[in-house]
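Translate sequence into C-alpha cells.
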Amino acid sequence: MRNVELLIPSKGLEELKTAVTFGADAVFIGGETMGLRAGAKNFTAEEMSEGIEFAHKKGVKVYVTANILAHDNDLEEAARYFKEIREIGPDALIVADPGMFTLAQENCPEIDLHISTQANNTNYRTFQFWHKMGAKRVVSARELSLAEVKDIRAHIPDDLEIESFVHGAMCISYSGRCLLSNYFTGHDANHGECKHPCRWKYAVAEVNRPGEYLPIEENDRGTFIFNSKDLCMIEHIPELIDAGVDSFKIEGRMKTALYVAATARTYRRAIDDFKESPEKYQANMDWYKEEIRKCTTRDFCTGFWFGKPNEESQIYTNNTYSTDYTFLGIIEGINENGEAVIHQKNKFSVGETIEIMKPNFVNEFVTVESIRSDEHGIMESAPHPKQKLYVKLSKIPDVQDLLRRKEELN
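Result follows.
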C-alpha cells in the first residue's frame, strides 16, 4: 500500500492551525498574489512564515499555490514572489503553466514543484513530461476516472506522485478553466478572481423578443443548470488507494475552520481505519458520513471517478449550502477561572447546549454557563462576530478544540 497523504486547504492562519491539529499531513495555502483564490484572506509573508513554522513543528508539510495562468505583465512580479517564497521555505510550490514552472525552478531550485490541476493533466504522457522537467507531483484532472488514474500510475515512475481531489466543490468548466466569470463580471477565474456564475440562476432569451425571458426547466426541478453537487469520496478510500493516488486533496481554500476541521478529521479517521483494517473502515462508515455533513455542504456526488456525471450530479432547485451546524469559535486558551477564550464567530447564548469538536474524533455536548467580555462584562448572549469572549462551559475544553451548534431543521 502506498503511503497516502491527506492534503487540507487553508485560507488563513486560523484554518492552517486547525488543519494541522485535526489531522492533515499537509496543507495548501495561497499568498497575496499568484494563486487562484484571490477572494480568500490568504497569507502575508509574515503569516506564511508563522504558519509553516507551526506546521513543521507538528511534522506537517505546507504547499503554496502559484497556479495562475500568467500573462507577460505577471512575470516580473512572479519572479520577485518566488524569491520571497524561497526565504520562507515551504515544502512545495503548486504551479500550472510552463512559464511559471521555469521561473520557480530558477528562483527556488531547492523547493519541490507540483503541477496544478489547472494544467489539464489527463494522460500518462503529460505526467511523464512533467517528471522529466523536474516535477515532484502532478495533480490529476478532475475529469479522470479511477481506471484512468490507475492506468497513469502504471505508466509513470514510482517516485512521481499523483495528487487527486477527493472532496469539495466541483467546477463546471473543464479542469477549472472558466470564461464565464471574465465574460459576465470582468473578473478572471484563471487569475484567482472567479465570481462563481455557475451557481447563478439562468433563463433563455429569444433574439426577436427582447426583454422576454423563458425559464430553463428540467422536469420542473429548477433552472440552476450549471450547479454541480459537491464531490465526496469518503465511501471509496480503498478504490482511491488501489488506483495509486498518493495525496487525497480536499477542495476549499475559501472555507471556514469548521469545514477544515470536519473534513480533516473525518478523512483522517477513514484513511487510518482502512490502513488498520478494511473491516474497521466499513464498520465506521456511518460515522464518516454523518460527520462529513456537519459543515457547509451541498448534496454529494462522486464526480468523474466512476464515469461521466449525469443529471443526478446537478442541483436544480437552489444554489445554497446546507448549514446544519453553526461555527461558534476555536478555543484559544483556558484562563485561571476555567473559562475558554475564543473570538466568537456566530451568536450563541447562556443556557444553550453546544458541541465541543475534538481532534481525537470525540464530540462532547456541553452547556454554556456564562459569557463575558472585557468591554461589556457579563453577557446573556454573544451577538457580535469576532468579539473576544471568556466562556464558562459545563466541561472544560482543550486548546484548539472547536465549538459548534446543531441547528434545528424546519
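Note: The mean pLDDT is 88.
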